[in-house]
Write a structure and sequence with these properties.
- Pfam families: SCO1-SenC.
- This is Redoxin domain-containing protein.
- It comes from Hyphomicrobium album.
- The protein is globular, with a radius of gyration of 17 Å.
- The termini are far apart.
- It has one domain: Glutaredoxin, CATH 3.40.30.
- The strands form three sheets. A five-stranded mixed β-sheet has the order 5-4-3-8-9. The chain has a two-stranded antiparallel ribbon with strand order 1-2. The protein has a two-stranded antiparallel ribbon with strand order 6-7.
- The protein contains six helices and nine strands; from the N terminus they run H-H-E-E-E-H-E-H-E-H-E-E-E-E-H.
Length: about 200
């Protein structure tokens, strides 16, 4: 079991690294420098979404305008990456004090078949009362994952098919009050590093 957890964490970090190289211009330039062509511009992530909160209410990205968002994708059955990411978000927001009031942390399930609105909402609140849990139909989750350039897929359990897992991108996105990308973190970021960066950006 310990080995499986380590493998899962490593896989999540690798998925996040691949996504960062693919999406963020600065990451592409760092790992794949080009002598003549320079890449610039904003990261191509974020956009409109329609999802459901724990009360069953339909919410959209427009509901969070005027506030920063910390957006993290995962699922309630996640054994390691999701708890680590949510604990990091909680601790970092606690550490920055009053500035945390400017931020809405959002946990979006990539497992809509099993994660009901109530289930994902309660799961998120286990880590911090500030965290909003959202889910939706498979089509709505596919749309928001595409907008945020998030990869996810089922990992079948050959012994018990109903007990599948999920591989998914583990990046935590900080989005600005206008809904545009500001910065990103991953579950292995230290609390001090995340809170320091948030303090500078908020």
């Amino acid at each position: 079991m310990h080995t499986k957890i380590i493998v899962s964490v490593v896989l999540g970090v690798l998925l996040g690294a691949v996504a960062a190289v693919a999406v963020f211009p600065e990451a592409r330039n760092k790992f794949f420098p080009q002598s003549q062509t320079q890449t610039s511009g904003k990261a191509l992530i974020g956009g409109p979404f329609t999802l459901t909160d724990a009360s069953g209410k339909t919410v959209t990205d427009a509901d969070y305008r005027g506030r920063y968002m910390l957006v993290f994708f995962g699922f309630t059955g996640c054994p390691d990456i999701c708890p680590a990411g949510l604990q990091l978000i909680s601790a970092a927001l606690d550490k920055i004090g009053a500035k945390a009031d400017k931020v809405t942390p959002i946990f979006i399930s990539v497992d809509p078949a099993r994660d009901t609105p109530q289930k994902v909402g309660a799961y998120a609140k286990n880590f911090n009362d500030r965290i909003v849990g959202l889910t939706g139909t498979p089509e709505e989750i596919a749309a928001v994952a595409k907008a945020y350039r998030v990869f996810y897929e089922k990992t079948p359990n050959e012994s018990v098919p109903a007990e599948y897992g999920m591989n998914h991108t583990s990046i935590i996105y900080l989005m600005g009050p206008d809904g545009t990308y500001v910065a990103h973190f991953n579950p292995t970021t230290s609390v001090d590093a995340m809170s320091e960066k948030l303090n500078k950006l908020l």
